[in-house]
Amino acid sequence: MNAPIFYSFRRCPYAMRARMALAVANTSVRLREIALKDKPAEMLAASPKGTTPVLIDGDEIIDESLAVMAWALAQHDPEGWLSHENDALVAENDGTFKHHLDRYKYSTRYEDADREQHRDEAMKFIGKLETRLTAAGYLCGAAPTLPDIAIFPFIRQFRIADQTWFDAAPIPRVQSWLKGLMDGELFQSTMKKYPLWKEAGEEFEFPSTPQT
After folding, report:
1. What pTM value is reported for the model?
2. CATH number, position 9
3. Choosing a second label site near 161 at 20 to 30 A (CA), which of 54, 77, 118, 178?
4. How far apart (Å, rounded) are the C-alpha atoms in residues 137 and 68?
């Protein structure tokens, strides 16, 4: 298979959104699933920062998830995801919201982190999403576009931190939006497990040959 190499960690929200863009664009890559605790030397040689995703297309190395999404959708964008990029909303998700999410979900890793305070600060962004979802079922209209796919893996992480609390919070539109995206075939198909490349020595065509 002569296709770009794609390093991914299944549970990484950045890799999730990149995989979903590759899948919706039907752009084939050679998937190499990794474990963050045992990163392949080949991936680190290409991208020393050691985070996923990493896409290698010939001499081009793309190691930012939004750039991978843009690369895939530039080739084929059948659902018009690029019609509503909304850079400001995605930037707030990746910046302020992610800052508070980390300190809420992983509070023990941060000195003097007040878990509930960071949860409350993160909820300010989720409140903005709730307001946006008043007009339609998705952030930019009646169908999911790039902002939905770029943001929702991080809202999923926020929910995982305390599912009971999140499901009882007064954010019905966000809850419905998140559930719909998580239950959707696109997300489910991109979350199927693959053997670790470093252990199995095997790479897989993605998105066309997922393993069960």
Report:
1. 0.94
2. 3.40.30.10
3. 54
4. 26
